[in-house]
Amino acid sequence: MELRQLYYFVKVARKEHVTQAAEELHVAQSAVSRQIHQLEEELGVKLFVQKGRNLQLTPAGALFLKRAEVILSDLERAVIEVHEFLDPEKGEIRLGFPHSLGNTLIPQVVAAFRKLHPNVKFRFKQGMYPSLIRDLVKGEIDLAFISPYPKENEHVCGEVLLTEELYAILPPGHHLSGEDAIELAQLKDETFVIFSEGYSLRPIVWEACQEAGFEPKIGFEGEETDTIRGLVAAGMGVSLLPELALHQSGLLQPAKVRISKPAVTRTIGLVHRSNEKLPLVAKLFHGFLLRYFKRD
Known about the structure:
Helix content: 40-55%
Radius of gyration: 23 Å
Number of helices: 9
Number of domains: 3
Shape: globular
CATH architecture of the largest domain: 3-Layer(aba) Sandwich
CATH superfamily of the largest domain: Periplasmic binding protein-like II
C-alpha cells in the first residue's frame, strides 16, 4: 500500500467524484481510478459504489476513511514538527475561522503577527461552527476562532478572546434609522433577513427576539454577512449583525443602530484540541493572540 493511494482515496471520498478529485490533485482521472482499483484489490473489498454520477463510500470504505484520515493527518503533522524543529519561524499555522471574521478580524491579527514573524506561513480553513469543531478534532487544523465559545466539549479547550455587541441594521431611510438606540421589540412587525440553518448567528438572533417577546418573521435567508448586509441595505428587511461585520464601505449600506434591550452579544473564542500539545509555531501564534486581545 502506498501513501499516494491513501491521498487519492481520501480525496475521492471527500469529493464523491473521481473527475473532481483528479482535477484538485492535478493528475489524470485514469491515474486516480487505477490507484483506487489497486487499493481495493489489496484490501480485498469494495470501497465505493456508484450512485448516479457520484461515488458513495461502502460501509468498509467509511471505516477505512476514518483510519486513512488519521494516518495522513499524523504524517502531515510529523512533517510540520520536523520543519519547526529545524526553524519554528518557518513553520505553518493551520487556522480555522467562521466567515463572519474573514473580512476584518483575521486579516488584522495575521498581519500583526507576521510583522513579528514574517516567515511563518498560514493555511486557512473557513467553515460553520460544527465543521470547524470537526476539522479541529480530526487534526485538519490546529487552532480555530469559534463563535459562540463552546461551553462544554470534551474534545476541545481554549479561551474567550472577546465579547462582541450585535447591532440592529435597517434599510436607509427606515423610520428608526436615526435613533441612537432602540429596543429589539420595536422590530417585532418587521421582516427579518437572517442567517441560514447551521450558522451560529442565527440562534443568537432568534433567541434575542424571543427574549424581546416575539418570533422573527423571516423573509430572506443568507450564508454570508455581505449578503445579509446587502439585502438589508436594499430594503428587503432588517437584521442583527456583529460590529466586526459592519466595517464596510460602499454606496449601498444599511443603517446601524444600537440595541438597548435586551443586550445582544456573541462570544468569540480560540480553541484547540484537548490533551494535546500545540505545534511550536501554533503555540507561538496562540500566545500572541492572548496578548493581542488582552491589550484591547
